[in-house]
Amino acid sequence: MDNKVSIQKLATGVPGLDAILGGGVPELSLNLIVGTPGTGKTTLAHQIMFNLATPERPALFFSALGEPALKMLRYQQQFSFFDASKIGTAIHFFNLSDDVSTGDFDPVLAHIVEEVEAISPALVFIDSFRSIMVGANRQREGAIKLKLFLRHLGLHFASWDATTFLIGEFPSDSSPPPLLTVADGVLVLEQHVARNSMVRKMQVLKMRGEATLPGIHTFRITQAGIEVFPAAVVRDDGGEHSQAAVAPPTRTRQTMGVPGLDEMLGGGLPAGYSILVAGPSGSGKTILATAFLVEGVLRGEAGIVVAFEQTPSQSWTRTIDELVSAGRIGLINTRSLDLSIDEIVQRLVDMIQTMNAKRVVIDSLSGFKLAVAPSFREDFRESLFRMISVLSGIDVTVLMTSELEDRYTDLRFSPNGSAFLTDAIIVQRYIEVESCLKRVMAVVKVRGSAHSNELRQYEIVDGKIVIGTPLTNYEGLLGGRPTQSKASDADTRGSGP
Amino acid sequence: MNHEAIRRALLLQAGDAVEASAVATATVATWLEAAIRLTPVIGGEGVDMLFHRALQISAKDFPWLVVTTKKAGRTEMLVALQTHMSEREMEIALEASVALLAAFADLLAHLIGESLTDRLLGPIWAPPLPASEQE
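Above: the input entities. Below: the structure tokens describing the complete assembly.
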């Protein structure tokens, strides 16, 4: 019989945090929340405390020197998680500043122990232990004494059935202090300023006994408190046969909403695929995307548009606006300067689940890249890859538009080399025929499926795309200056007057 | 702040004696109870600072409330307050006491909000249960 200890996890209730902690904070653990001033440590501690504390399993919050308790109470009340009725019953505040200012640990420890024994809390918070550390530095062998102090604290609380959180401030330029080895878990909060945006990031540096989500995760502080956006991770399917591995012929196909386009794609777009629509400005990408979403709505499939274009075209706005108001299409239209891709993915996934959406449009990738905070632009391609994987994993068809400079000398489909990431590509180009600008469109690829290889002329009539006949009489269309092919010259001559 | 509730609580504390000295004693006792409730939460220093400020505010209407120099410690200040208050007429002492405690509570409410202040200080001047309901 297996009588190994099972370590319960306390779900913190902070959105996104439990996911990166591998389910929650292990019971009886000693955890450090560290970061430079202003990164949100006290807010995080309070949010966890108000979420978890009950009168049967109360919390003790010890405040040492640093932010005066009066101010802390004043500011933390601004968050919606602050519940004054819990104070005195589920939550007990204790001020240690008088003891800490002496610089001697023993009275501090004694006071802490006394309160813990009196109240038998399930959760203990100490904010902050930097002030205790400052005291340590003044003493001889202060560093060792501090380590011993923390170890004693940790052991004491564990034996009293309490999970502990110590909040600490460290100057950003110093290396992590050795006392991090004492802790069972370490959560590091940062705020990173690049150009004109400030991004908040969190990392689980250590969590004993847990498989945590690696990497640096962005988070936001709003009136509701902290919300964490776990970095999307491409899950390893372990070689299992999954929906993603189903060959296209057996997948259902979705109609695009543009007459003639489904045939060009070989019968419609396979469900769950990602498709890139690339073309120069004004070529009608947004119109195609709109038709895709509207078609979905007509078939009872909810859709979502993630809009980054600064000046959406008139027809797009009207059609989509009506459907958004009717709740048939969801809209994500963020303009904040500190966006992270993980946050967008999180919001998108949440909305997909709420609406049971099957079609998503991202308009456009170029706008997306500009909207993202400067510090994320370097990893844009990697993040895009992760985002597409997450979306196809939940079986949503994604159409992304991409701005393309019409360069006639090279056949490129997307900036950043993102083209390979998608399952299908439609390219739109301008050509010059008889001194007129004409539009042509072609399907470049549909993974695992036959598709048309014709370059078809198309027009935009009344805000809709009308696909015309293939331009068979010309050569060199993609070069931008096509010439009539010899065969057609012969015909024209032949049918002369 | 509910001045009526404070006045009633003070009178109850003062007991039957209708003298300024009883009011003074009741004032100090009430204030000590407030300090006991608040110190764990905001620290002794925080409590002292709020009280000093409350004294200053109330001193506009009752100048004799400025009882000591600024550097006085808590005990010294309370003793001086009790002495000075006892020398007044009972009605004046009562008014001053109510004003002082109300100012103190108002200050706290201004900083940390009414609901939290009520939770922390409310029980001090909550009306007691009727005799029949007490055990």
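Note for the figure: The interface with chain B takes residues 63, 68-70, 73-74, 77, 84-85, 87-88, 92-95, 97-98 of chain A (CB under 8 Å).
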